[in-house]
Fold this protein.
Amino acid sequence: MIQNQKRIFTVGITGASGAQYGVTLVKELLRQSFSVHLVITEAGWRVFKEELQLNTEHREALLEDMFNEGYEHLTVHDLWDVGASIASGSFRTEGMIIIPCSMGTLSGIAHGASGNLLERAADVMLKEGRKLVIVPRETPLHQIHLENMLKLTKMGATILPAMPGFYHLPESLDDLVRFVVGKALDRLEVPHQLFKRWGEQ
C-alpha cells in the first residue's frame, strides 16, 4: 500500500456488455473518496449508449453528472493519450481493474501490444508487479480466449469473470451487479458493503 498518499486506482471500461459493472465500481470508489483514473474505450462509449440508454454526445458533462458524488477525485484520460500519467510505471497506483473487459482488450494486454492507453496502463501494472484485475464478460469462450486468460494469470493478473452469485438471495438486477463489483473490490482490498457475505446475518 502507498504510504502517506491518497489511494489511487486505475479503472478501464471497454465495449464488453456490462457497462453497469464499471459505472457501479467507479461510483463506489469515489463514494469512499479514493482517487480514480478512468479510461473508456470507444466501444465502451457505444455500450453506454446502447445498454444504459445514455446520450454520449457530450461526454464530459455526462461523466460529471453520472459521478457527481466524488467527481473531484476523478481523472478521465483520453484513450489515445499515451503520455498520460498512468502510462508510466513511475506513477504510483495501488492497482488497476478493467470492468467489463472485452476479449479484444484482453488479447491486446496478453500480447503486450500497448495499442492504446488502456492496454499500456495494464502493461505497466504487470511490469511493476501491481494488482491487475480483469473482469471479462463474454460467453461462450473459445480456446484463444482461455489461453489469453491463462497467460495473464501466469503473469500475475486476476481473472474475475462477471459471474454473479445467488446465495445472497438477490432481489434485483442491482443486487447482481453489486455482487460482481463487490468481488472485484475484494481483490483490490477495498472494503465495502455491497452484498451480504455467506454466513452473515
About this structure: DSSP finds seven helices and six strands in the chain. The chain has a mean pLDDT of 95.
